[in-house]
Protein: NAD-dependent succinate-semialdehyde dehydrogenase
Amino acid sequence: MSFAYPEPKLYIDGEWTAGSSGITRPVFDPATEEEIGRLPVAGAADLDKAVMAASRALPGWRSTPPLKRCDILMKAAALLRERIEEIAWLTTREQGQPIADSKVHILRGIEIIEWDAQEGRRLYGRIIPSEPGLRQMVVREPVGVVAAFAPWNAPVFTPCRKIASALAAGCTLVLKPAEETPASTLALVQTFIDAGVPPGVLNVVFGDPAAISEHLIAAPQVRLVTFTGSVPVGKHLAQLAAREMKPTIMELGGHAPVIICEDADVETAATRIAGTKFRNAGQACLSPTRLYAHRSVYDRFVDQFAALARKIPVGPGEAATTAMGPLANARRLAAVDELVTDAVQRGGRALAGGSRIGNTGYFYAPTVLVDVPEDARILNEEPFGPVAIIARYDDEAEVLARANALPYGLAGYVFTRSAARADKLAGALECGTVGINHLVVSTVGIPFGGVKESGHGREGGVEGIEGYTVSKTVTHLLQ
Ligand code: NAD
Structure:
């Protein structure tokens, strides 16, 4: 099935527009490197318009009854489900992942919209007991206008998280999705428009990310900044927000450790880890990257995992036989290649992959590295690509020290048959999310987010919506 690639636009105050700058930038198909579209770049006047529209729309949207907001979000979710074939095709065209995986991302996004829609009806406050004649109440109010920044690796799923939570909480927003993958996010936005989100409530701008974030974060009407992306950019945006005393939700990079204990079901561990590792060509913040196998199971685990990696069919995302597509852009290809080359130059060995595939399209082979020294760049910088590094360990204290050594703290995983050991390791891993015997940890209804340099705040679950609210305390002395 094939669709036309649309002409991406900005969406400001209820209107599609080519913006005021007159500048456009190309969008590429990562499987062929062909230019498939041109994207308008927002100028300062467009950004001001978007912020003012969101600000004007705020009083109406925050006072819309929660049930009505819920109905609109549920309708958007239903429309997204109806349009999944076309939107999945768009994601694959501009981002590269196999169509089946694009669909999974969209289905997860639908679940999140539906969950947030309903949870918006349950933003309860509380009454604090006090002396007679005094009422003490805490109510949750929408924080206000949100500036949201979403990356290219999941161009429907990540915007779903931000849009659904903000709208369910009664906020309005200006969203800057990734310039590399505009059509998927715009198709998502169209579902909210068609579902009845009023003009100004949801605005979308693209352009120069640094100029846009600086402009939006400084705007006095913006009251919250939410960003998903790399640690350096997250730190930069957090600094801009701190200057204006604005809160932030930062969902940043990770370098997830996996501890495969001596009592693990090695075959299951290898299958599940490989299944997650190479999905989206490893371009996921929760991707398992540092695999620590106990000395007694190391050889078996390495053999099974490398064999699985070597069997993965790599190709264009549109082909039904493809299990892993290209990397999403030329920057990732160069970065992954540099990290692998550095590891090999320092003595690491590639048991699978280790190089680019072909010379057209950003294809990189599923790669398994062993004997990598601890000071290699790839053991310290987020790989964000289809590379797993396997190392052996001897005891729990040592593996925990290695797992916790990095400034990242997003996801961590443990494979063991012992509940006591699982409990102990889950408690000791310095990360926001731990998966025991599986890796499906960013799903509907549960909070997801990091500690340390992987960020703060949570997306999903009750915490996700609460992040878009502020509490107000009202104490009322009855006359
Ligand atoms: P990058 O850090 O330049 O960009 C990451 C994202 O941030 C992109 O969507 C980009 O448009 C946006 N961005 C960049 N500078 C910005 C700014 N000043 N203001 C607002 N937004 C800005 O790197 P990249 O090459 O696009 O991606 C590679 C790195 O990004 C990876 O190594 C990974 O660490 C990180 N990343 C993380 C996630 C995640 O889900 N946490 C997603 C995508 C990328």
